């Protein structure tokens, strides 16, 4: 009996993996993100990159020897800034998605499992947050606190909790009345073990998918904020604040090296993460069929 | 029907208060008191400061300040801007029009593009056409609005030079034609970002509808295929599409903040950025109120559209 079940489970996760690996765009996205992460971690170790010091002889220099991607208006090397900016952008995306998850999942669990006043307060609050443009709340919050990288991570993270809470709330509602949860309760299992053992595993797939989309969203939010001049502050680099330069029409029309690469990297990164999420969604959807070669 | 709308309105009221409380208390946490901005004058004495504080009501607890603000709100008074010294109500209302023009135009354009594309994709799923349209819309939704905007300005205003770079009118010519020319790029920018989610939803729900029995019945009756798709399919598939639209409304205003800034479109978003930069809290609160009201109104409108599309909702409530 036990063995049979294990085989069944194995073949389920094998199916999911197989479906995921057949999603070409998701595989491409995985590769791109893996390469990016390796590059932003390793390049500063093997190359001498200096994103902060001005090269006083080369303000706004076009790409050439010495500065392969040119310099910005204060003579800082743009290649180095792209690498360090990548560190910041990827880190903000990942960490704020983790914060959103850590806030949203427990709140959704409590609202769905205990219902009553918890449900009303938490879900009502989620509605309020969802019915207001988070970009504007983020702007207000960042103006109240100092716009450092950590403030931005926390603000974006805290305001991203609603999707996680709604997802897990819906999931808890659908399993809390199931026989196996009832019987666990009947034999005296405590609430916390029930939640961890029966409820969370059920919601794992949608949470994972939402996590990837949340990461992509957070990267867009950080870059928009930095583009508006209210995010990551120079001299610290982020892809968004590199693009801030393009608000000047001279830069926009005559110095494409100062803004195009950062924009392309943003699009590439966010698309890759979204494609990974899309691949996961297809793979975890039982209606998707495995294609035979 | 009216009962249904009233019920939705009653639910919207606590949401409205929730948002204003949230933003009011957040801005009251700001470290630099607005007084410091006003009293940059080094000659001002401590007593002057205290007098001004009391005059502005800033010596009261935040809750009292909020209640007073609320009381003024119901008399149509949103206070005076710290930055311009003008009444906030006038400033905000002046900017509301352009923002509504931009958001509504881009919503309409997004639906007009996404729904037909979604139907085609659902009709022939996994065809090259399906892959191309969903792939492109995915990339559109992955591109930050400001970057799309910059690329559009670079291509259409700088290189090709057929469209203006920004603003709402050519200086001195406040005609509709001039406005439309200025609207095209910001509207397209927002559309690129929004098409993806509508297309995805249309495709998904159309695919589900196509496998329903009533579609087979309609086909078996020998109806024209186009009629089957539009009348029997689309009408049923539109309900989830409207849901997506209603959840998108807040994002539209959020996206407008960035797009307005890129194109110097004189709407609420660019006013918001200015106000935040100068910590002009009365104006920030004013914009918050107007956007919250607009979002809730948008939700109510989508609710009404629901009840028109879906007789089940109309009956049951």
General description of the model:
The complex is a heterodimer of chains A (293) and B (317). Chain A is mainly α and 293 residues long. Chain A has a domain at 78-275: MetI-like (MetI-like fold). Chain A is 73% helix and 0% strand. Chain A contains twelve helices and no strands. Chain A has helices at residues 2-22, 24-46, 78-114, 116-130, 134-144, 149-159, 161-176, 179-186, 191-227, 239-243, 249-254, 260-284. In chain A, helix 2 (24-46) packs across helix 3, helix 3 (78-114) runs parallel beside helix 7 (161-176) and helix 3 (78-114) packs antiparallel against helix 9. Chain A is elongated. In chain A, 44% of the residues are buried. The model of chain A has no long low-confidence stretch (mean pLDDT 86). The mean pLDDT of chain B is 83. Helix content of chain B is 78%, strand content 0%. Chain B has a single domain, classed as MetI-like (MetI-like fold, Orthogonal Bundle). In chain B, helix 5 (88-123) packs parallel to helix 12, helix 9 crosses helix 10 and helix 11 (268-277) packs antiparallel against helix 12. Chain B starts with a helix and ends with a helix. With 317 residues, chain B is mainly alpha-helical. Chain B is globular and about 85 Å long. Chain B has 13 helices and no strands.
Tag the structure with descriptive keywords.
heterodimer; A: 293 residues; mainly alpha; MetI-like fold; 73% helix; elongated; B: 317 residues
């Amino acid at each position: 009996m036990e063995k049979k079940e294990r085989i069944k489970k194995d073949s389920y996760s094998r199916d999911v993996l197989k479906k995921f690996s057949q999603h070409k765009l998701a595989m491409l996205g995985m590769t791109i993100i893996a390469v990016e992460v390796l590059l932003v971690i390793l390049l500063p170790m093997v190359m001498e990159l200096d994103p902060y010091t001005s090269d006083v002889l080369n303000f706004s220099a076009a790409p050439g020897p010495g500065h392969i991607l040119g310099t910005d208006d204060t003579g800082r090397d743009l290649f180095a800034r792209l690498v360090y900016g990548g560190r910041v952008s990827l880190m903000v995306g990942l960490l704020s998605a983790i914060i959103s998850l850590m806030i949203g999942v427990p709140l959704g669990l409590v609202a769905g499992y205990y219902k009553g006043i918890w449900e009303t307060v938490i879900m009502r609050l989620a509605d309020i947050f969802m019915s207001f443009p988070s970009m504007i709340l983020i702007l207000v919050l960042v103006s109240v606190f100092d716009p450092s990288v950590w403030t931005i991570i926390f603000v974006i993270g805290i305001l991203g909790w609603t999707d996680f809470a709604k997802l897990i709330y819906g999931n808890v509602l659908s399993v809390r009345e199931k026989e196996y949860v009832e019987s666990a309760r009947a034999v005296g299992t405590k609430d916390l073990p029930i939640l961890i053992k029966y409820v969370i595993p059920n919601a794992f797939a949608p949470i994972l998918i939402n996590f990837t989309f949340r990461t992509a969203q957070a990267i867009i939010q950080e870059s928009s904020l930095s583009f508006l001049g209210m995010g990551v502050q120079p001299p610290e680099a982020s892809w968004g604040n590199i693009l801030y330069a393009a608000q000047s029409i001279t830069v926009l029309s005559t110095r494409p090296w100062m803004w195009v690469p950062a924009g392309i990297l943003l699009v590439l990164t966010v698309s890759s993460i979204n494609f990974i999420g899309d691949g996961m969604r297809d793979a975890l959807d039982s209606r998707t069929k495995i294609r035979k070669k | 029907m009216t009962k249904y709308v009233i019920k939705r309105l009653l639910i919207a009221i606590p949401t409205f208060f929730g948002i204003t409380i949230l933003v009011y208390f957040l801005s009251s946490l700001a470290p630099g008191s607005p007084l410091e901005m006003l009293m940059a004058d080094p000659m001002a004495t401590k007593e002057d400061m205290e007098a001004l504080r009391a005059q502005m009501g800033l010596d009261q607890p935040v809750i009292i300040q909020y209640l007073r603000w609320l009381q003024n709100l119901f008399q149509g008074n949103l206070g005076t801007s710290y930055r311009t010294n003008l009444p906030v109500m006038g400033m905000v209302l002046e900017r509301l029009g352009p923002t509504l023009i931009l958001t509504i135009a881009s919503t309409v354009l997004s639906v007009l593009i996404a729904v037909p594309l979604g139907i085609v994709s659902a009709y022939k799923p996994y065809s090259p056409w399906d892959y191309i349209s969903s792939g492109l819309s995915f990339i559109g939704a992955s591109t930050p609005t400001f970057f799309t905007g910059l690329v559009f300005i670079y291509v259409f205003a700088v290189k090709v030079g057929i469209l203006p770079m920004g603003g709402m009118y050519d200086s001195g010519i406040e005609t509709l034609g001039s406005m439309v020319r200025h609207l095209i790029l910001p509207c397209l920018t927002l559309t690129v970002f929004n098409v993806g989610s509508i297309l995805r939803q249309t495709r998904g729900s159309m695919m589900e509808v196509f496998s329903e029995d009533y579609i087979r019945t309609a086909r078996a009756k020998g109806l024209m295929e186009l009629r089957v798709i539009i009348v029997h399919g689309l009408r049923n598939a539109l309900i989830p599409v409207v849901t997506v639209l209603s959840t998108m409304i807040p994002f539209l205003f959020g996206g407008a903040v960035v797009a307005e800034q890129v194109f110097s479109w004189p709407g609420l978003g660019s006013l918001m950025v200015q106000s935040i930069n100068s910590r002009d809290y009365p104006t920030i609160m004013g914009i918050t109120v107007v956007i919250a009201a607009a979002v809730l109104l948008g939700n109510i409108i989508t609710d009404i559209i629901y009840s028109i599309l879906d007789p089940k909702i109309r009956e049951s409530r």
